[in-house]
Amino acid sequence: MHYHIWIAALLHLHWVLTVAAVPVPVPVPVPVPGGGSPKPSPQQPDKASSLAKLWNTQGNKHPTVFIHGLAGWGEVKPLLGAINYWGGLNTNLLDMLRNQGHTVVAPNVGPLSSNWERACEVFAQLTGSLTDYGVARAAQFNHARFGDNHTGNAMLPSFAQNFKTGANNLVKINIVGHSLGGPTSRTLTHLLRYGSADEMAACVKAGVVCSPLFWTNKTQTYVNGVFAISGTHQGSVVDDFLQATGGRKQLVKALFKGVVAINNFKNLGIWNLQLGHHGLGPKKGEEFGDFLDRICDSDWYLSKSNAFFDLSVANQADPLLSYVRNVPETTYFSVAGVTTNSLLGVSLPQISTLIVLSPFATIIGTYSNSRLSALWRYTQSDWRQNDGLVMVASSRGPVDGFQSYDMDLVSSDSRSLINSAPTSAPKKGTYNYVGELSHTDHAAIIGWFDIDTRKVEKIYTNIMQVLSSLSA
Ligand SMILES: *[C@@H]1O[C@H](CO)[C@@H](O)[C@H](O)[C@H]1NC(C)=O
Ligand SMILES: *[C@@H]1O[C@H](CO)[C@@H](O)[C@H](O)[C@H]1NC(C)=O
Q: What is the pLDDT of residue 400?
């Protein structure tokens, strides 16, 4: 099947339409309460005046780290000067949150890299250090131990102090992750708490100093709260499907080419895909398309050290992924988007689904679970509902690592947000699943191509309300 041709064509079309701001007839979404949360009954006694009061905490002012998903980018510069990963063309969600008084940063991590590598990259950028992927990991996957050097450029100098000798003033962070950024956040939270015994042993054996990320003597969590948006905690069957049908390579190329096609990429240099440690850095004068071809033809592409391995539903039980645990002192949240309607056992895209996501929504919505035993735990209608790239079931949280915690994230003020929240505080050490955002696909949930900018602004305002209301 020639996925690449029509995916690329659709991507181009959509970007051109959006960039040129040509008015496209768009169906008006049916107003529905977000989050699937029950409306508070009028008889209900007035709840506390803030989420922090409701949860009986003083709240916190921890800086929040935003981790992007597959084929994404951070805030080093908006892609091609115009597109914010967090907000798209219409809004800059990070600036909006800064104007509300929050400290937020958005590192730039490998858009096609494994969760392990992406976690190492976030750590290096936050603390201003040389990216250290680990001695054992480098040996296992036959790549260089070190990556980009961020020495002197800490995104969060106060957080970096935690790992200096004589540090006594603990500085924690909150994390927000979208898509692959969900499991990346969970991996980083695990490593910041437990480190890695394998890495420590390898450092001792080699007689070298280990990255503090891998220290196993850490005694408390450095991550207070985590919020996963459309996270791929149990993978996405899109990856398994495209792998089985030989379409994965085309998807990668189409995604990138679609994103860069709106601009003359040659004038802007090559997108650093942060694969230099695999010997896959960009070459001078090489065009981006050729760079992608070289990457997809390399040994790395078929290895177990990349995002495609991590995104496969079938691979979730592999020890390379299954070692990650929920940290008992950290409070996790998750939210899923849904852009499909379930009818007679299959889920099909709604008319408001972004045109490039519709085919994937259908792939997931009609996917048979016969060869994926990981899906047997779900009912058919359960795993087929999706946001155009990820199953709702996957976005709730890791297997057995979540509970329902309905909240209305589309609330327009803090009063309705508080009224929609359960009266008991969210549980630590598990994902508190706040529910589905209806009529919200995988791109709309980060503000891409969404006509209703107000909705996404409310969602992020509320997410920060939630994270900053947890006890410090
Ligand atoms: C990283 O950068 C710092 C500061 O510029 C420099 O002193 C150090 O030698 C660099 N390390 C490597 C391995 O390049
Ligand atoms: C934890 O282990 C690292 C690496 O062995 C060491 O440098 C550091 O001082 C230790 N920290 C504490 C608090 O013992």
A: 82
**Per-residue pLDDT reduced to its tens digit, 124-148:** 999 999 999 999 999 999 999 999 9
Report in angstroms the alpha-carbon separations of 338 from 29, 219, 295.
13, 39, 32
Q: Which two tokens stand for residue 465?
A: 């309300």
- Name the residue ranges covered by the structural domains of the chain: 51-236+327-345+390-468
Fold of 51-236+327-345+390-468: Rossmann fold (3.40.50)
Matching residue, tokens 């087929």 = 384
Confidence of residue 380 (pLDDT cuts 50, 70, 90): confident
Note whether 147 and 79 are within 8 A (CB).
Answer: no
Which ligand is closest to the CA of 214, given by its number?
A: 2
Q: Report CA dihedral (143, 148, 150, 151) to the nearest 10 degrees.
A: 60
SS3 readout for 246-308: CCHHHHHHHHHHHHHCCCCHHHHCCCCCCCHHHCCCCCCCCCHHHHHHHHHCCCHHHCCCCHH
Mutation test of ligand 1: which of 149, 150, 211 has the most ligand atoms closer than 8 Å to its C-beta? 149
What is the average pLDDT score of the chain?
A: 87
Pick from 127, 129, 130 the residue to mutate for probing ligand 1's pocket: most ligand atoms within 8 Å of its CB.
130
91-119 pLDDT, tens digit each:
999 999 999 999 999 999 999 999 999 99
How far is the centre of ligand 1, averaged over its atoms, from the C-alpha of 137 (Å)? 22
Adjacency order of strands within the sheet including 64-67: 104-105, 64-67, 173-178, 223-229, 331-338, 431-438, 402-404
